[in-house]
Design brief:
The chain is of the alpha+beta class and about 150 residues long. About 20% of the residues lie in helices and about 35% in strands. It has a domain of about 60 residues.
């Protein structure tokens, strides 16, 4: 199936999320690496189910991003508030002791809390700010005004 990847506004935290949109059957997979929101949406749910796409939505409660010294990235999205933050902290510290790229963030009641590490530069931007930054960086997208490039 054909799909289009682009950045979209996260419906939960209003920051930049990634969408993988299967335009032939109108199914979109949304993943927010800021708050942890993830969903499968469709304006034609019967068609989506027919093709094996389960319509669902998980509100995000944060993320744990661990980047190894080899550059391998492991992202965990929290679908409920994590009660084992200490375990995640130890895992990150063991894999990336300098905390150059790894981070642990919780999201509750609209508030982000950085527990450990350094989220990427664009992490704190609203979707509108992110979209403007990407359009300035990569040029105008007049003919594709709905598409926003994806970065971190």
């Amino acid at each position: 199936m054909a799909s289009v990847y682009s950045a979209v506004e996260c419906p939960h935290c209003e920051r930049s999320a990634m969408e993988d949109y299967y335009y032939k059957i109108s199914v979109g997979y949304i993943v927010c690496s800021r708050c942890g929101y993830n969903a499968v949406r469709s304006c034609m749910p019967e068609e989506a189910i027919r093709y094996g796409h389960e319509i669902q939505e998980n509100l995000g409660y944060g993320v744990c991003c661990q980047v190894s010294s080899e550059g391998k990235r492991n992202m965990i999205l929290f679908n409920c508030y994590p009660d084992n933050l200490e375990e995640f902290k130890l895992e990150i510290e063991n894999g990336d002791p300098e905390l150059k790229e790894s981070y642990l963030v919780t999201f509750l009641d609209g508030v982000f809390e950085i527990i450990l590490g350094n989220p990427p530069e664009n992490f704190h931007l609203s979707f509108k700010e992110y979209r403007e930054k990407m359009h300035e960086k990569y040029g105008g997208f007049e003919e594709f005004s709905g598409l926003v490039p994806i970065e971190d």
